[in-house]
């Protein structure tokens, strides 16, 4: 290669590099300018040309100062060197934001970045220029948006087509929407709903269109906007036309809710009265009636109807009406009557229209109104203007208020509309609450019913179980007590087992029945003064055989002590003491003891202690001991029990106004104690027997050596049992009948001295037989004893009230029966 060739090659390479450099510079997205210290421009790339409007050659003729005059402010000779040296404004490598000047004298925000380079000791600068107007614009826009949303008023921008192009968040939330939901929606049909009504009253054109046309700013008060939920808000607003380059772009509306400002005292009063009506409500109808009256009086309506949508949602029916007391004409009564008798379908008449629209409907003059079927009656009654407003339960319309007045009304006060819509909402909520309360009451009634069924079932069950038990216990008793020995020793022990099992089963049934009675609140106690010493001695005597069998000594500190009278139900108190002593015996070790003593507490109560030397109660079980069916491990032992006794005992003590508790140490023993109120009575009180049905009725029976007894009973085994018992007695004769009708016949024919009457008889029950016997002259004075498996207090009470002289419960106790029969024989 020759030297010249070599040079050529070098030059070519250089030219190529230069071309690359120039292209790179021109294609840069930033403007690139190089200057010397005096601000003379050397390089001005294509982007810089676009940014500043100068061509590169034009730029070399101007000074950099002309492009960014702001940068040179405060530097007297405008020499760029001074700026560098001052180090105040620009530093190499850092950026600075300035207002840059375009050739056409407009400005744009620019970001400059300087770097320096040297040509033969002379300092030069390269400057990159970025147009940041877009970024600035976004920032400004954001700021406006924030400001827009921070205004306290609602701001709506409406375009020429009446569409909402912008709404701030305050405005949207005042109307119940989000801004997004409203964008693009028609202002007239979405918000400015009462436009047509306004027109009817004012005769004016739509105010928004008017503003667009005349370009004049307007202030409007007391207008109505419709919110998302179909109710109205009363607003004041200002309309301003938006004009740019002499062109109408739309209207800006700034609005605020004036509800709290205008008519607030009336509003408060009405809402206060409404709350009062609701709180004193007797029924839905009553609430509606009072509401109609209250609205009529406060808002000066003269006649009102409330229409309720039926459950099939097909018609509206008039539920309540009201009229001002001074409206007495027949025509008014006729209008009320026609309303009362009419039903409206959706869309039909004023109520139907409100139902369909879900919004209030205003009639300025009924006379010119189409779709008002009651027009002739309304006109005759002198009614002019009317108004219907919906009642909402949640988002469902449930009814329509309707108001009329005889004074023609041009305008409907916007506040009234919102007030009535508000009241409608309040009523709807009340209805909902009322319904859920009714549901609760129904549920409660059902629960009570179910509970009654349960009690009924238990009592029925106990009846069913008692009847066979009657035979088991009764016959085994007869076998055991028979004066003619019929059984050998072995059989005697077998029968005694049957008897014991029968008694155990009976105890169980009684306990379950007691528990169910207590739980359903049906347990009744009859409190009277009782000689405690006597009762305790008797109870101890009763339980002694059981104690002896278990090798437990019963120690009674009560007998012989001063007599104590307490207030209690004798039968139930005996049950309590029996249960406690029986437990003391049951949960005891052979050779142990149960001690009974008492102490007087503060002159008002006596404490009865039942102390045993038994197993004691483990600590972990002590807090469960009074819970039904809890046996604390005893269920795995040989000791008989159900776990019900103590829970019934506790409830009984409490029913008798006493208190029960215990303390116990494992393996040492337990002491159960209960406090009963002392009677402030004398000894005489207790010794004088209380008149009971037994004593009072026995007087009717004469002294007889022999008595004839009629037993009306359908159960053969029961009949057989009683027959056998009577056979064993002297001076008693028994005839029987198996149902009520033959019983009546036998009674009339035989005229017995005493009748035993089963209550559960087929076809005609014992009570009916009783009433008929009392109707017949010849039988009406025969004493009648009820025999029933129903051991409930109310059954016994009912029998006593009817006039039965006694009440024997099944299973019949041989002794009890004999005792009662002897009473009538003596
Ligand atoms: P039951 O005796 O039929 O099991 P109770 O309700 O009378 O039912 O008693 C519940 C449980 O309390 C018994 O199973 C027993 O574990 C315990 N208990 C009751 N009384 C005593 C007592 N005096 N000593 C020890 N444990 C007792």
Brief synopsis:
The chain is α+β, with helices and mostly antiparallel strands and 826 residues long. The protein has a 6-stranded antiparallel sheet.
- Contiguous low-pLDDT stretches (5 residues minimum) are 194-205, 681-704
**What distance separates the N and C termini?**
165 Å
Strand order of the largest sheet: 13-12-11-16-15-14
**Ligand roster:** adenosine-5'-diphosphate
User: What's the number of helices?
Assistant: 29
Overall average pLDDT: 81
Shape annotation: elongated
What's the alpha carbon Rg, rounded to whole Å? 52 Å
Which structural category fits the helices and strands? alpha+beta
Could you please describe the fold and organization of this structure?
With 826 residues, the protein is of the alpha+beta class. Helices cover 45% and strands 24% of the residues. The strands form six sheets. It has a six-stranded antiparallel beta sheet with strand order 13-12-11-16-15-14. A five-stranded antiparallel beta sheet has the order 2-1-5-4-3. A five-stranded antiparallel beta sheet has the order 7-6-10-9-8. The relative contact order is 0.04. About 4% of the residues have low confidence. The structure holds adenosine-5'-diphosphate.
């Amino acid at each position: 290669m020759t030297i010249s060739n070599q040079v050529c090659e070098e030059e070519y390479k250089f030219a190529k590099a230069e071309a690359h450099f120039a292209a790179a510079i021109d294609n840069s997205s930033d403007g690139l300018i190089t200057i010397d210290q005096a601000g003379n421009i050397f390089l001005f790339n294509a982007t810089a040309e676009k940014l500043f409007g100068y061509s590169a050659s034009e730029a070399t003729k101007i000074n950099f100062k002309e492009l960014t005059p702001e940068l040179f402010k405060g530097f007297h000779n405008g020499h760029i060197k001074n700026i560098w040296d001052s180090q105040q404004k620009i530093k190499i490598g850092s950026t600075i934001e300035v207002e840059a000047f375009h050739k056409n004298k407009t400005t744009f925000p620019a970001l400059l970045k300087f770097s320096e380079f040297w040509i033969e000791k002379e300092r030069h600068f390269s400057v990159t220029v970025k147009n940041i107007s877009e970024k600035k614009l976004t920032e400004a826009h954001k700021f406006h948006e924030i400001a827009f949303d921070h205004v306290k008023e609602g701001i709506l921008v409406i375009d020429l087509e009446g569409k909402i192009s912008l709404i701030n968040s305050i405005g949207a939330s005042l109307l119940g929407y989000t801004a997004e939901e409203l964008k693009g929606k028609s202002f007239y049909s979405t918000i400015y709903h009462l436009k047509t009504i306004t027109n009817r009253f004012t005769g004016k054109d739509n105010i928004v269109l008017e503003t667009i046309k005349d370009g004049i700013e307007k202030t409007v008060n007391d207008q109505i906007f419709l919110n998302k939920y179909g109710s109205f808000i009363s607003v004041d607003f200002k309309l301003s036309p938006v004009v740019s380059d002499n062109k109408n772009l739309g209207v800006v509306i700034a609005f605020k809710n004036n509800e709290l400002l205008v008519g607030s005292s009336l509003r408060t009063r009405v809402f206060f009265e409404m709350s009062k009506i609701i709180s004193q409500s007797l029924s839905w109808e009553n609430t509606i009636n009072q509401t109609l009256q209250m609205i009529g009086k406060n808002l000066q309506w003269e006649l009102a109807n409330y229409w309720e949508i039926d459950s099939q949602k097909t018609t509206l029916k008039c539920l309540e009406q009201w009229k001002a007391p001074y409206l007495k004409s027949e025509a008014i009564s006729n209008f009320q009557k026609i309303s009362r008798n009419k039903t409206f379908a959706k869309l039909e008449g004023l109520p139907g229209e409100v139902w369909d629209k879900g919004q209030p409907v205003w009639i300025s003059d009924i006379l010119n109104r189409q779709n008002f079927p009651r027009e002739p009656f309304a006109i005759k009654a002198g009614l002019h203007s009317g108004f219907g407003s919906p009642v909402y339960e949640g988002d469902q319309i449930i009814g329509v208020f309707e108001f009329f007045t005889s004074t023609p009304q041009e305008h409907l006060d916007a506040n009234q509309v919102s007030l009535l819509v508000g009241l409608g909402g309040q009523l709807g909520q009340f209805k909902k609450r009322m319904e859920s309360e009714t549901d609760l009451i129904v549920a409660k009634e059902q629960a009570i019913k179910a509970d009654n069924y349960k009690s009924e079932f238990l009592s029925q069950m106990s009846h069913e179980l008692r009847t066979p038990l009657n035979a088991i216990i009764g016959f085994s008793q007869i076998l055991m007590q028979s004066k003619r020995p019929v059984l050998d020793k072995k059989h005697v022990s077998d029968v005694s087992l049957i008897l014991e099992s029968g008694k155990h089963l009976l105890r169980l049934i009684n306990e379950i029945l007691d528990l169910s009675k207590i739980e359903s609140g049906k347990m009744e106690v009859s409190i009277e003064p009782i000689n405690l010493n006597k009762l305790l001695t008797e109870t101890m005597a009763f339980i002694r055989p059981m104690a002896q069998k278990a090798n437990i000594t019963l120690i009674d500190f009560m007998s012989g002590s001063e007599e104590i009278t307490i207030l209690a139900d004798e039968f139930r108190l005996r049950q309590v003491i029996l249960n406690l002593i029986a437990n003391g015996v049951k949960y005891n070790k052979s050779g142990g003891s149960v001690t009974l003593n008492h102490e007087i507490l503060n002159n008002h109560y006596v404490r009865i202690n039942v102390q045993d030397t038994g197993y004691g109660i483990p600590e972990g079980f002590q807090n469960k001991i009074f819970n039904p069916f809890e046996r604390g491990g005893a269920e795995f032992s040989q000791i008989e029990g159900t776990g019900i006794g103590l829970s019934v005992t506790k409830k009984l003590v409490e029913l008798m106004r006493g208190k029960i508790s215990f303390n116990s140490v494992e393996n040492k023993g337990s002491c159960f104690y209960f406090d009963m109120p002392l009677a402030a009575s004398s000894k005489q009180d207790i010794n004088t027997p209380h008149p009971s049905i037994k004593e009072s009725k026995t007087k009717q029976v004469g002294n007889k050596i022999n008595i004839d007894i009629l037993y009306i009973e359908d159960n053969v085994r029961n009949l057989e049992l009683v027959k056998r018992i009577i056979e064993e007695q002297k001076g008693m004769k028994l005839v029987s009948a198996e149902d009520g009708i033959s019983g009546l016949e036998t009674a009339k024919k035989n005229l017995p001295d005493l009748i035993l009457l089963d209550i559960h008889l087929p076809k005609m029950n014992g009570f009916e037989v009783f009433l008929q016997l009392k109707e017949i002259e010849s039988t009406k004075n025969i004493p009648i004893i009820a025999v029933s498996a129903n051991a409930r207090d109310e059954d016994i009470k009912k029998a006593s009230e009817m006039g039965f002289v006694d009440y024997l419960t099944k299973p019949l106790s041989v002794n009890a029966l004999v005792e009662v029969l002897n009473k009538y024989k003596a």
